[in-house]
Write a structure and sequence with these properties.
By secondary structure, this protein is of the alpha/beta class. It has three domains: 173 residues, Rossmann fold (3-Layer(aba) Sandwich), CATH 3.40.50; 56 residues, no CATH class; 205 residues, Rossmann fold (3-Layer(aba) Sandwich), CATH 3.40.50.2000. Strand 13, helix 14 and strand 14 form a beta-alpha-beta unit. Helix 4 packs antiparallel against helix 6 and helix 14 packs across helix 17. The longest helix is centred in the N-terminal third of the chain and has 22 residues. About 1% of the residues have low confidence.
Length: 470
């Protein structure tokens, strides 16, 4: 069979192309085409890692017409308003954060909010405008080029690796016109309530039963048999011994002291404005511990955060904190964006060994809690505002819908003020079983188990469904 995989940006590279997912499809004698918007160097990295992936086709340059974008943004705004009410969660509207720089964008988002408010009053209206969006995007100049490419390849199935990418919707709508079955993965654990499921597919491949139930609740037009629980391949790398380095080698490479216990601080992107403040608080606190007992700190920044906001803290606390930057590449400097950046295979080694050899991770509500839970290590969530009278409130963060998955379990430890840092860190290091003791249970809620089998589960499920169709 012929399968097209849409890779609209660099984020899907690590989880789906570096994992065994595509390799599994190819081993079963399927012909796989990567329909992508990647740089030349990203493609070279993929070929080096997975030489069996040979067919790369670039997606034609695509810019949404203003009318199409207004409709898409209006639908997102309408669904957020409805999700807020349906889930009884006001923080849902925090996901509406449009870029309003410039008069044109201000007008665009004013119109989107106006139309979106009107659409939110009726499920029927939302369905009508979904169809309008599909029709409008098919009228783009690139539609004919994509139709021709699909007719040339004649694929049996098209899978999208990022459900919110508008560039992928152009391909998906072309596929519908010529009766090609389509599917999408849901990229991250917090994505469904954000109302950024742009297109409608024949199949949805989700992380867990929890995510399946979210889709059914928030998208009533999707029926249960369309949703397949397959997990996500992004955690399978932790089970591959070839990524693990000897501790002496890893610590020596980055100047770490093998005799010391180790804290990992993992940063969020620039949308979280006080990451450097938190890092400073942690360094100030840990530096108060007497030298012979003092843990060292590994700082892992968010891959897209190329800012200098941490520089002063890193300089002031040399010898205590060691910055091990993610090995994600960019060919030319652009605005922070996962669309213009891609991971190297080397970053898998950096991340896996950082998790393997750190005793605890500290962050502000990051997915890294799950990475550490794979190795049964505790996470401490920061739960205080480091800046007084800030508009960015930590209280809002942990009310986000995806954190409701922690209800009735002790998934993480909590640092509720700066004064607690030393006590909570020491407890997590010395008695890890008493901090976030239900982290494995939380992991099982979030991601289909066994984790090391998710690539096989996804490829197997896709091929089984295609056999049933044919």
């Amino acid at each position: 069979m012929k399968i097209i995989i849409i890779v609209p940006d660099g984020v899907g590279v690590r989880n789906y192309l570096f994992s065994n997912f595509v390799s599994n499809l190819i081993k079963e004698n399927n012909e796989v085409f990567i329909y992508h918007k990647l740089s030349k160097s990203a493609i070279e990295e993929i070929k080096n890692v997975k030489p069996e992936i040979k067919n790369f086709i670039e997606i034609p340059h695509f810019i949404e017409k203003p009318k199409v974008r207004i409709v898409r943004e209006s639908l997102a705004y309408a669904r957020l308003l409805r999700n807020k009410e349906k889930l009884n969660n006001k923080t849902i509207m925090k996901f509406w954060n449009p870029n309003k720089k410039g008069i044109k964008k201000k007008i665009l988002y004013f119109l989107a909010e106006l139309l979106g408010y009107f659409l939110s009053k009726s499920k029927k209206l939302i369905k009508i405008y979904d169809k309008i969006y599909e029709k409008e995007i098919q009228s783009s100049n690139q539609s004919n080029l994509i139709n021709k490419k699909l007719l040339d390849i004649k694929p049996d199935f098209i899978l999208n690796l990022h459900q919110r990418a508008p560039i992928a919707s152009l391909i998906v709508e072309s596929a519908k016109k010529i009766n090609i079955n389509t599917g999408t993965v849901i990229f991250s654990w917090d994505n469904v309530p954000k109302a950024r499921l742009v297109s409608r597919y024949n199949y949805y491949f989700v992380w867990s039963e929890l995510m399946k139930n979210e889709l059914l609740e928030l998208y009533p037009e999707i029926i249960e048999k369309q949703i397949k629980v397959t997990g996500t391949p992004q955690f399978e790398f932790y089970y591959e011994s070839n990524y693990l380095l000897d501790k002496k080698i890893f610590f020596s490479k980055y100047g770490l002291d093998i005799r010391k216990r180790t804290i990992c601080y993992s940063g969020n992107d620039s949308s979280s404005p006080y990451e450097a403040n938190y890092l400073k608080d942690i360094c100030e606190s840990i530096s108060q511990i007497k030298e012979e007992d003092r843990p060292q700190i590994i700082f892992r920044r968010c891959p897209v955060d190329k800012s200098d906001r941490f520089d002063k803290v890193l300089e002031n606390y040399k010898g205590l904190i060691y910055s091990i930057d993610p090995d994600w590449r960019i060919e030319k400097e652009q605005e922070d964006s996962f669309a213009s950046i891609y991971p190297t295979l080397n970053d898998n080694k950096i991340l896996i060994n950082t998790v393997q050899y750190s005793d605890v991770v500290i962050n502000l509500g990051s997915t890294m809690a799950h990475d550490f839970a794979v190795f049964d290590k505790p996470c401490l969530y920061l739960n205080y505002n480091p800046v007084k009278n800030s508009k960015y409130k930590v209280e809002d963060i942990y009310k986000f819908q995806h954190f409701r998955s922690m209800e009735n379990i002790e998934a993480v430890g909590w640092i509720n003020n700066k004064e607690e840092i030393i006590k909570k860190v020491i407890k997590a290091i010395e008695t890890p079983d008493k901090v976030g003791r239900d982290r494995k249970k939380w992991l099982q809620r979030i991601i289909f188990h066994p984790l090391h089998n998710n690539s096989i589960e996804l490829s197997k499920t896709i091929l089984e469904e295609l056999k049933n169709i044919n």
